[in-house]
Amino acid sequence: MEDSYARSLWTVIEPLHLVTYFTPEALQANKDAGMKGFWMGYFGSRAAPMGPVPAGVVEATFYGFQPERVRKAVPDAWKFATPETLLRAREEAAAAALRRIAPGIEEVAAKAAPLLAEAVEAADGAARPLFCANRDVPAPADPVAALWQATTALREHRGDSHLAILANEGLSGIESVVLAAAVDGRSLEWITVARGWTETELRAAVAALAERGLLDGEGAATAEGRAYREGIEERTNTLAAPPYRVLDDPEEMYALLLPVARAVNDSGELPFPNPVGLPRA
């Protein structure tokens, strides 16, 4: 399997995971669990596999978020709901959302969930805290929830790998999201909304990237910046690819998940463009 195929699989795995943030089922589940607002629900439910960790752990593992946004939600989230409550709420809500959006998902889950679970078990957990925490979550008995949990673990495996590369490159959290947005041609304004950074912090990041030749004076990506970002993506593919090598036919897995990914993408419940840079499958 070519390493680049890891990105192709990500484009059909990521939409299944993202239902846990944007669908009505997920939003209501976090509210019912006691979360106060979207961001407490986001940080609490995503961090829940790690247990009731302090804010510093979430800052480190979520990387691209302004630290104050994290600290407004964590550790207060654990006062309103235990991680175990949030784990149960998120898997049940995700399964319900996927069943509503993609009616044929039962058959897909029966085929894909066991194979993706093997990929999860085959993955190297070294320096991948969010992946390891999700890998250790017991597999749900519900096959659709099990499919969601496996895709979640694998997307966090890729995410942890990506963050290791960004840190090694000396890119701060805000610099990494600014560069990605500039390369994708997205407005930088969304970063203040979706990641919590201030205008002052945003301008400083643009200036730092421009000094490295990755952005121009207007905040647009230079040719060097595009090549640099592409190199990061290629290295991410290399680190994300090994788990999928246990699959007999990665292309068959892609084809199996594609209709579900498209149903989620076309549901109107995921924002496009979105903070994670997910393209439409």
Show the helix and strand layout.
Elements: H1 5-22, H2 24-33, H3 38-47, H4 55-62, H5 67-71, H6 77-80, H7 83-101, H8 105-122, H9 129-135, H10 143-168, H11 173-184, H12 190-194, H13 199-211, H14 223-240, H15 250-265
Helix pairs in contact: 1-2, 1-7, 1-10, 1-15, 2-7, 7-10, 8-10, 8-15, 9-10, 10-14, 11-13
Biggest sheet character: none
Uncertain parts: none
Cα-atom radius of gyration: 18 Å
Distance between the termini: 20 Å
What sort of overall outline do the alpha carbons produce when their principal axes are compared? Answer: globular
- Structural class based on helices, strands and sheet pairing: mainly alpha
Work out the helix count. 15
Portion of residues within helices: 55-70%
Please report the total strand number as a whole number. Answer: 0
Average pLDDT works out at 96
Could you state the order of secondary-structure elements as H and E?
A: HHHHHHHHHHHHHHH
Strand composition percent: under 5%
Describe this structure in words.
The chain is mainly α. 67% of the residues lie in helices and 0% in strands. α11 (173-184) crosses α13. The longest helix has 26 residues, at 143-168. The protein is globular and about 50 Å long.
Keywords:
single chain; 281 residues; mainly alpha; 67% helix
